Amino acid sequence: MNRRSLSMLLLLALATCRQEDMYSQEKAVGWGKFFPFPGRMTMQHPVPGTVARNPADAPVPQPPEITAAMLARGRRQYNINCVPCHGQSGDGEGMIVQRGFPKPPPLFNDRLIKAKARHFYNVITHGHGVMYSYADRVAPADRWAITGYIRALQRSQHAQVAELSDNDKQHLQESNP
Ligand code: HEC
């Protein structure tokens, strides 16, 4: 086949592709399901033994188990990155908001208490409405740690005195004589 007829053939092959079909065809998207992959999940764990170039940036596709060390890390990261707007308790009255930045919803409102952990991970990663993305400042593992700490903040709003340790009960009595 000479070059000219080869290019004609290629043109014909291209002409038969319809953009809509390619757009709407089955494909793997973000956190979604994808039949041919193991567990039907698009996002797969890295192959065992994979070494991340920068461990802090290694993908963490599923929420890890919550540990005390992770909560402590989440608290630190929350206080550094989120408190200026969301406030220490998550009420949305941070210093920047008091100076005129749009007020975020309380992190412990009913909707966010019911929201999946992944929602918080995604908000930190991609931003939400007027809140910009924190992907370049908060590493993936820390996004889960902050999410864990937000769960603790949510719980703290509805805690019963009876659930506290003796030590905490005493602190409470001392601070509210
Ligand atoms: C500069 C201020 C600012 C900072 C810093 C900030 N946020 Fe936000 N955040 C907002 C505002 C404003 C909204 C409301 C956005 C909207 O609805 O348009 C918001 C919304 C949210 C929501 C609610 C999303 C929903 O479903 O309504 C979550 C969760 C959240 N932020 C988490 C975080 C976390 C975690 C951090 C720290 C890593 C953080 N934010 C840092 C301003 C901020």
Notes on the protein architecture:
The chain has 177 residues and is mainly α. The protein has a domain of 100 residues: Orthogonal Bundle (Cytochrome Bc1 Complex, Chain D, domain 2), CATH 1.10.760. 47% of the residues lie in helices and 0% in strands. It is built from 9 helices and no strands. The site of heme C has 22 residues, from helix 4 and helix 7. Keywords: Heme, Iron, Metal-binding. It holds the Pfam family Cytochrome_CBB3. This is Cytochrome c domain-containing protein. InterPro entries: Cyt_c-like_dom, Cyt_c-like_dom_sf. GO terms for molecular function: electron transfer activity; heme binding; metal ion binding.
In short, what is this structure?
With 177 residues, this protein is mainly α.
The CATH class of the domain at 64-163 is identified as Mainly Alpha
Order of helices and strands: HHHHHHHHH
Low-confidence stretches: none
Question: Which structural class do the helices and strands define?
Answer: mainly alpha
Report the principal-axis shape: elongated
Strand content: under 5%
> What is the correct CATH architecture of the domain at 64-163?
Orthogonal Bundle
| Percent of residues in helices | 40-55%
Termini Cα gap? 95 Å
Annotated CATH homologous superfamily of the domain at 64-163: Cytochrome c-like domain
User: How many individual β-strands?
Assistant: 0
Whole-angstrom Rg: 24 Å
Q: Could you say what the CATH topology of the domain at 64-163 is called?
A: Cytochrome Bc1 Complex, Chain D, domain 2
In this entry the ligands are: heme C
Work out the helix count. Answer: 9
What does the main sheet amount to? none
Mean pLDDT: 86
